[in-house]
Specification:
The chain is α/β, with parallel strands linked by helices. The strands form 3 sheets. Strands 1, 2, 3, 4 and 5 form a 5-stranded mixed sheet that branches. The protein has a 5-stranded mixed sheet with strand order 6-7-8-10-9. Helix 3 packs parallel to helix 8. The protein binds zinc ion.
Length: 288
């Protein structure tokens, strides 16, 4: 057995302690408490003292990351500062058009390194360049890796989903559980959003989606109006493929297209109305 001594121990489930101890056997945590008490109870344990300035706490969880974009600030440095949500999305698209897979790989590895260095042990990471998922084979970072998908062309989206299904078997890459991320209600056709949700829930894949992030998204899902229609869709050449207006806010829109299953992770979730909240709770979705 090993007794780890920390100047400050933060168990989270109980109040923080000064001069705390963790009693370990291999990878198993046996006990937590004041160091002196644990030493008295287990005098034969090997003591590992973390030092007078140490703080020991469980790994942090970041449920929504895009670690492949860790170098985004450098990549976007020469571009105009966006002054709106759609402007910011266009900047992301512009950056992604300019960088190559090697740059994304270096950026993802740096994101993993920074996460671990700063005490994050679990992430819900969104990955758009799918071959990079293999990097997680050899990393200690745990959590879920969501393969991102979007699009409106039926043939291309069908191929994309088939491709992702290949990555999602056998269900994990290294310590990361694998899942799918339909990007958002405004970047998937209604048919594709429904297909991804249906396929994921049937197969038991974890799901993460950006939902209710901006007022521009609400205008889009309810009315098919606003900057998404006037600016974003023409920018990506989708202006002739607008969906029909549903009248629904993002949460009921997602449900209409078979989304919002138990355990689905809804990133942001700020553009919701009070009446949406109990329905979201009943559905069992998580909003990080
Ligand atoms: Zn995101």
């Amino acid at each position: 057995m090993k007794l780890i001594r920390a100047a400050r121990l933060v168990p989270v489930l109980s109040p923080a302690l000064n001069d705390g101890g963790l009693l370990m056997e291999g990878d198993r945590l046996l006990d937590v408490g004041p160091f002196s008490c644990l030493l008295k109870a287990h005098p034969g344990a090997e003591v590992e003292d973390q030092g007078p300035n140490s703080i020991v706490l469980p790994p942090l969880v970041n449920a929504h990351t895009h670690l492949e974009l860790t170098h985004f600030p450098q990549w976007s440095a020469g571009l105009p500062e966006p002054d709106s949500f759609v402007g910011w999305i266009k900047t992301v698209i512009e950056v992604k058009r300019q960088i190559n897979p090697g740059q994304l790989e270096a950026s993802l590895k740096e994101g993993i390194r920074q996460s671990l260095e700063l005490g994050t042990g679990f992430v819900g990471d969104i990955l758009s360049h799918h071959p990079l998922g293999q990097i997680y084979h050899d990393e200690p970072l745990k959590g879920r890796l969501f393969f991102e998908t979007l699009g409106i062309d039926p043939e291309r989206t069908r191929q994309s989903l088939d491709h992702i299904a290949g990555y999602l078997n056998p269900g994990h890459i290294g310590p990361m559980q694998t899942g799918v991320s339909p990007h958002s209600p405004y970047t998937l056709s209604q048919a594709y959003l429904k297909q991804v949700n249906h396929t994921a829930h049937s197969a038991g894949w974890p799901v993460s989606i950006h939902l209710g992030e901006s007022i521009e998204e609400v205008l889009f899902t309810r009315l098919v109006e606003g900057p998404m229609v006037e600016d974003l869709y023409p920018y990506v050449g989708w202006e002739n493929s607008l969906p029909e207006a549903t009248g629904f806010r993002p949460w009921p829109y997602l449900v209409k297209f078979d989304g919002g299953g138990k355990g689905d992770l809804l990133a942001h979730g700020v553009q919701v109305e009070p009446e949406d909240v109990p329905a979201m709770a009943d559905a069992g979705v998580d909003v990080p």
